[in-house]
């Protein structure tokens, strides 16, 4: 997915949205939004009244009814436009995804291993369980034909089509980097993969479906809000309907004026019901999902996004999330009386053939600290001893020199078996390093123990600040790691997480999540490994890393395409923004009613009771202009608030009370005051131009 | 407002708030079933009624029990009125009440409205007063209490399927809360001079001959009118006055304490035998607010956070102070038309001053105005002055008090559950505004709760507005209006508002004892009461089943000044917006006409 952002009223989106706004006048579409349907019905009614008045027999001057009818239609159209605009943005994003689904040819293997016979098939014909091979230089730019799991081989893969990230990533069989996504490209080497999704169920299909369905699936809070809005509409319907008898009665007893016209009642009804929020409601939801996509997060439903706004506890894997994936050598600590340069020299020799990130980091550190160059391993006549699970050591044999590095226990056994002894100073060093949260690696030559290499977990830059932000949002962060308690505590302190779970097994993770849930907390979990899948499935909000395994992705209800674990902050913010925007506009909408009453009530009844002119606090020019101004304000405010609906009310991690006070001041107090000014301005404009 | 008025209001609130805490804690203790000393007596009742006291009920069973209990109440009060001539304790030989009036009165007393289309001393015998009305005064109050207790349990419990046992709750509230307190208050009132006897009415010869204008009646006994519709009168005189008697003190106490408000006499608490002194007046006002205020404290205790209760109580108190101060100052202002005639309406040592039409001289304008604010803020409906004669804005405030849904203290139980519905609405909107699924006391507010709150909040305004519309449109409805113009509209609006919100006070003026009004208002009362109780209980059931979430940094605190402000804002905005047009055509126009001239 290209990270395309649109300007708010980008003509490419706004122009089609105008057409769409008219198409949405279909009653079947309007019916889905009960509040706007009332406006729609009011528009039709006033139009008929206007036609009747033009025929010479109206309940108010024809020009007035016509003006009201026109602005009621505008109200409906503006709401349609807002929805169409939000959908347009989403559709544009979906379209760029759909580009990925062009025709792809796949080399389907008849036997599930590399080098076997294959036949060329259509990507769409692949089914779950099929095995295909993808090689660099294949036809069609080596596009991976379907979501799958690598079962053989290693390749660098360009995932920019999905993530927008241009740096290629390594995909290999086994482990946590085995999942590949259809639509991405193999850049070098080859992989054999087993297809894990049928056509129509792939990742890209799900993304497109999510974008296109965003407006249809209402989230729980949206449903609850709709109930409230409908209830308010029913009450106001009662208010306006009964106003006619009240008016008839008042005219009769006062013997003055005329009963209020149907047109004015419809105008009052439309002004009172919460059209502002109702007109923008679905746009807010669609825009929220759109924002998630811009943050490169795919959610399986709006429900999941909304739930993210409520998260109390965030569980994160240490490795790859809080710390960089690999430990790095950070110090050479020689045994008592030893020389650190010698230690570094031997440590480097022992690591030259060690291709693990740790091994490489030792070579790098030796070069940085003691300027030891990498030696040509072939010239040394060296015999490398690779790490094995039995010995738990690795190293090199140089002639009769046996250099080994490994865990303290393993080296102790090795040294003692050769008749040497493990110096107390080294034991001391080992404990010290472990307490710091680092991993000690002991180096020995023969039976002589030289010292300790400190392998440090590197906490990601800036992560402390991110956790502080989560804390301000009211979210507790918990680090989950397989390390021992001492190491875990040290890293937890350095990273600034609130709590940690050490020596975690998949069962322990699951138990921890259940425990938090039993306390009534909403738990979010980010993870990437297969062993995270049960925990992800149990968590309320589960963000799987795109780099993670297929199992993890299936278990999560969101996938982060950037594989950035602190992305949850954006997810939470988006979830909260969707709610805040709805809540703020609801408050604004209801608060607006006060000013509208001051405009319409005196205007509607001043003929019956001239004293009611005292309530015309805005000094509106005439009853007709007052009512028309209120209706115009009610329509225009929808347009003015479209940017807010699409961008969302900004979330700040301030604490509930402060945030509420701020939003109440802006949308509550603002909602009371703004329409007074707005209606007055429109009235002045109408009076000056002589339109009413 | 005069110094006297401020002192009165201050003393009233001080005593009320002091008494609320111990009583509230006692109610919580009682309703949680911890009053062991009361068990033996309770068990006798349970055994007689065949109730298994340990059995808990789900919300639906609870609601059905309440509905059944109240329907039986309507039947029994109806039957008592219709059969009173055949029953004992009827020294005046009162005739059977007409079916429509009996129906209206039965519904009225069962729903805790206590709207009185009839005149007590001229319609009902002592047995009906005692066995019908007084009993319902207790039971309707108990109904309100148990419904709010069920709602509180819904908030306090978690992952529970039940909300309590309706029969046990009703028994406890009646036996150990309402009865002892009423007894105490009855004694105090009797000490002030409220009568308590079963004697026939007394005829006394007055010192002076009273001359008055009596309506001229035709052969059928109907008043004659001239061609403009005004009643024709003729001079009359009398030297004999009939003094109505009865068991008043015992009914008076629960009339106030249970926020019932149905007077023994037609003149209600303006009658010297019901409310003889300023002190009895003070006690009566206190009795009205006592349980509604105390229940807030019980609520805090039962949900395990006292501050929650105080926040609700603070919101109620603040709104009440504004309302009371408004009525008191509008009434003290007097009438500009009288001022134009040179009438001295200023308060001083010799007179209370202000607008005294329809008020008792022994109470003056301040005590009458405060009483009006209290009785309408709570859904009591007892009156010690004629609200019809208040200044337009002085009459608007009681109207608004009721239209807000009777949540400023409100009726016993009903006030608190109404307020909690508003609180749920307030946290819903504010929860959205801070970007969290709204929760109240750790309970998530979701679609089902919104649906129930919406119904609870919709029912009364619709009843009031549609009822008023029907009344002003029909001949039968207009026939009852006493005053022309906007005031006539106010009278009808007031009657429907009072009935649908189960207040029961009357603007007087309106002649409502007609089949039309008796039936219309009875329907408004019944649906205004149970149209709210059922959704409230449904909500209680749903809340009880939910988990209780612990409060965190992201949770909106519901006990600080911010929440109190929010709650008040919600009550005003949601409660009042529905009535603005109606109020504009009634009291507001009257006010403008009175002060700005026609």
TrEMBL record, chain A:
<dbReference type="InterPro" id="IPR023214">
    <property type="entry name" value="HAD_sf"/>
</dbReference>
<keyword id="KW-0633">Potassium transport</keyword>
<feature type="transmembrane region" description="Helical">
    <location>
        <begin position="594"/>
        <end position="612"/>
    </location>
</feature>
<keyword id="KW-1133">Transmembrane helix</keyword>
<feature type="binding site">
    <location>
        <position position="528"/>
    </location>
    <ligand>
        <name>Mg(2+)</name>
    </ligand>
</feature>
<keyword id="KW-0813">Transport</keyword>
<dbReference type="Pfam" id="PF00702">
    <property type="entry name" value="Hydrolase"/>
</dbReference>
<dbReference type="InterPro" id="IPR018303">
    <property type="entry name" value="ATPase_P-typ_P_site"/>
</dbReference>
<dbReference type="InterPro" id="IPR023299">
    <property type="entry name" value="ATPase_P-typ_cyto_dom_N"/>
</dbReference>
<keyword id="KW-0067">ATP-binding</keyword>
<dbReference type="GO" id="GO:0005886">
    <property type="term" value="C:plasma membrane"/>
</dbReference>
<keyword id="KW-1278">Translocase</keyword>
<keyword id="KW-0406">Ion transport</keyword>
<feature type="transmembrane region" description="Helical">
    <location>
        <begin position="223"/>
        <end position="248"/>
    </location>
</feature>
<protein>
    <recommendedName>
        <fullName>Potassium-transporting ATPase ATP-binding subunit</fullName>
        <ecNumber>7.2.2.6</ecNumber>
    </recommendedName>
</protein>
<dbReference type="InterPro" id="IPR008250">
    <property type="entry name" value="ATPase_P-typ_transduc_dom_A_sf"/>
</dbReference>
<dbReference type="Pfam" id="PF00122">
    <property type="entry name" value="E1-E2_ATPase"/>
</dbReference>
<feature type="transmembrane region" description="Helical">
    <location>
        <begin position="624"/>
        <end position="646"/>
    </location>
</feature>
<feature type="domain" description="P-type ATPase A">
    <location>
        <begin position="115"/>
        <end position="212"/>
    </location>
</feature>
<dbReference type="InterPro" id="IPR036412">
    <property type="entry name" value="HAD-like_sf"/>
</dbReference>
<dbReference type="GO" id="GO:0016887">
    <property type="term" value="F:ATP hydrolysis activity"/>
</dbReference>
<feature type="active site" description="4-aspartylphosphate intermediate">
    <location>
        <position position="317"/>
    </location>
</feature>
UniProtKB/TrEMBL annotation, chain B:
<comment type="function">
    <text>Part of the high-affinity ATP-driven potassium transport (or Kdp) system, which catalyzes the hydrolysis of ATP coupled with the electrogenic transport of potassium into the cytoplasm. This subunit binds the extracellular potassium ions and delivers the ions to the membrane domain of KdpB through an intramembrane tunnel.</text>
</comment>
<feature type="transmembrane region" description="Helical">
    <location>
        <begin position="455"/>
        <end position="474"/>
    </location>
</feature>
<keyword id="KW-0633">Potassium transport</keyword>
<feature type="transmembrane region" description="Helical">
    <location>
        <begin position="566"/>
        <end position="589"/>
    </location>
</feature>
<keyword id="KW-0812">Transmembrane</keyword>
<dbReference type="Pfam" id="PF03814">
    <property type="entry name" value="KdpA"/>
</dbReference>
<feature type="transmembrane region" description="Helical">
    <location>
        <begin position="282"/>
        <end position="303"/>
    </location>
</feature>
<keyword id="KW-1003">Cell membrane</keyword>
<keyword id="KW-0813">Transport</keyword>
<keyword id="KW-0630">Potassium</keyword>
<dbReference type="GO" id="GO:0008556">
    <property type="term" value="F:P-type potassium transmembrane transporter activity"/>
</dbReference>
<keyword id="KW-0472">Membrane</keyword>
<feature type="transmembrane region" description="Helical">
    <location>
        <begin position="173"/>
        <end position="195"/>
    </location>
</feature>
<comment type="similarity">
    <text>Belongs to the KdpA family.</text>
</comment>
<comment type="subunit">
    <text>The system is composed of three essential subunits: KdpA, KdpB and KdpC.</text>
</comment>
<keyword id="KW-1133">Transmembrane helix</keyword>
<feature type="transmembrane region" description="Helical">
    <location>
        <begin position="407"/>
        <end position="434"/>
    </location>
</feature>
<protein>
    <recommendedName>
        <fullName>Potassium-transporting ATPase potassium-binding subunit</fullName>
    </recommendedName>
</protein>
<keyword id="KW-0406">Ion transport</keyword>
<feature type="transmembrane region" description="Helical">
    <location>
        <begin position="310"/>
        <end position="330"/>
    </location>
</feature>
<feature type="transmembrane region" description="Helical">
    <location>
        <begin position="519"/>
        <end position="545"/>
    </location>
</feature>
<dbReference type="GO" id="GO:0030955">
    <property type="term" value="F:potassium ion binding"/>
</dbReference>
